[in-house]
Amino acid sequence: MTANTWLQFAVYIGVLVLLVKPLGGYMARVYQGERTFLDPVVKPVERLIYRLAGIDPAVEMNWKAYALAVIIFSVVGVIFLYILLRLQGLLPLNPQGFGAVSPALALNTAVSFVSNTNWQNYGGESTLSYLSQMLGLTVQNFVSAAAGMAILVAFIRALTRQQTANLGNFWVDMTRSTLYILLPLSFVVALILVSQGVVQTFAPYQSVNLLQPSSYQQIKTNANGVPVKDASGNPVMQTVPLTQQTIPLGPAASQIAIKQLGTNGGGFFGTNSAHPFENPTPLSNFVETLSIVLIPAALCYTFGKMVGDTRQGWAILAAMLAIFIFFLIWAAHFEQAGNPALTQLGVNQTPSALQAGGNMEGKEARFGIADSVLWETATTAASNGSVNSMLDAYTPLGGLAALVLMQFGEVVFGGAGSGLYGMLVFVIVAVFVAGLMVGRTPEYLGKKIEIFEMKMAALLILIMPITVLGLTALAVSIPAGTSSVFNPGPHGFSEILYAFTSMTNNNGSAFAGLNSNTSFYNLTGALAMLVGRFWLAIPTLALAGSLARKKKIPAGPGTLPTHRPLFIGWLIGVIVLVGALNFVPALALGPVAEQLIMIVK
Amino acid sequence: MNWAKATLAYLRPTLILFALLVVLTGLVYPLAITGIAQALFPFQANGSLIRSSTGGSAVGSALIGQSFDNPKYFWGRVSDTSPYPYNGASSAGSNLGPTNPALIQQVKQRIADLKKYDPGNTQPIPVDLVTASGSGLDPDISPAAAYYQAGRVARERGLSVATVDALIQQHIQGRFLGILGEPSVNVLELNLALDKLK
Fold this sequence. Notes:
Oligomer: heterodimer
Order of helices and strands of chain B: HHEEHEHEHHEEH
Strand content of chain B: 5-15%
Strand content of chain A: 5-15%
Distance between the termini of chain B: 82 Å
Largest interface: A-B, 135 and 110 residues
Largest sheet of chain B: 3 strands, antiparallel
């Protein structure tokens, strides 16, 4: 690792931590219904929405009603997006004249965006109309993030209240998340991105004249599109002159801002944020990488503020940062070390003032190693899933960092809202295990942790690995699964493991060599994404319902302090231990085996 | 609770709320950003197109790389778009894993192409010149990759290496604030400048 790499990491983490308190404090005000500086503009809009929709913001919901509201809202979202994608050929704002998206791909994409996964089986610039990007993807980028944040807030309320069934009003939490937090932040980020060169227009794609015209070979077809064969049955090739280049355009900046802020990640363009029109400069890259982690990190402070003890929030953030920084340095080390096979060919991978060096396959020159691995770890720690470099081309252990961060259950930052409620489940497990060791009734923030809470927590922790490993085992056992693999050997296994890890954890990044736009992967993937989102959200709300009913007991001399370094270390230990027990065998078959092959060759 | 009844009761507020949020986040927001972007940053918002001084259609985008394999020009990153490199209509990254024999084959082929026009160049080859970019449209190469090609370009154009080196020097885009990103050279802009030298 170079001195500049260390400096870039330090600047990034420094700026992030500085923003946690102001944004986190603001979000706490939003969720507690207090006045904010945006009230003069936003409050009238908020009131109008409630009036039109017939929502009484003072009416609260119990956990079942809250879960029902979440599910109905999501089902409406899936149906709307599916229909929109199927009908896009008939709808306006489609300058390239794209036809309907195929049923399996439309279903996968609809589930993917509603579940805040944003697994990308479509190539944006070659599949989706401007209208689909805006009304479909941009909308879900907002509301799926807002839904995650709403569930978190309901969970936090359960910890602050006692002897009640009420967790708040889902529609209000969702509306306030969108209006007061996601929209204003997106506005600012979108305009910064445009200033750097991210496109934002409704004009059709442009053509430019190539400086060096060339030509390419393609198979000659007759009028019916059937390849023409020569006498010996081989396809006839024809030379096509190439004098122009297509420049894709669209309303990209507005979508990319919320794609990052809402831990969504689905690209406007096929290659996501590696595409120069999504992420043109080091500054745009910095702002986007920051946006990926910003809300999940700041929500830790919001949590502390709402439970009346900000130390609790900082403690959780410290645990997240510790794991994040470890894997950041890990990935940077292995990517900077490069690929030994290329060194043997006389290629220079040593970093210097004139080049980034390292494993540059699949990476952009303007980002080099430091910005690429920073993005890799930020986007897989948070369940964002966007990429600014192709993870499939990473060194085995460099790519392992991305896999492991997701396999921890997306609790290191994690999704907007969903990351922190996942983390709080781990806190409950950590408190419970610690309580067993010292022989005291475990409690967290004055709430006793009892049988029902532990059942839900165990369920929450086990659903993910069972789904990931089960579907991976299925995929490697049948041709429909293995025929999509692109890279040979253990790397091919990693591609499949990565796909189901990413989809079940609602991340959305990929080892993109895997051809996952097939019926098998579209359908099993949709299943994994639904399980990952809703089979976790519902037990989380059930847990919240149970906690809200309990009395709060005052802290006594026997209470385990949950804000000290000892507990932070213990929490990290629990997360790592659970993750390792679940996934070490699978990791040994994939990245670890490949690393051994790479260095022995 | 009565689930069927509750579902029906929740359907109306959900549908209206969803419709309003669609209008707000899917129409009002992108339209507002487009309006402001077109007013404040028209060049960037419309694709950073480079117009030639004589007018006419654009010669390229400052942000989208073009394919070069003529030895008179600087070459950019390897591009894995199909059916031809640097296809702007279909960005595609390299997904070749580090132990994939196809990767080694791609790198060997690229080295052979470079050596064909520059057999006397014995410097080690900068890694970004033989590897594929993430987008397939990477507009940049590292300064090292540009300097590596200076001898070939100078010879093919009858220029001195010093002249070409100086041109590269002028086109190095440093790190943002000296910290963020990597120093880089925009290949299209460098080649346009080369053509202007004559």
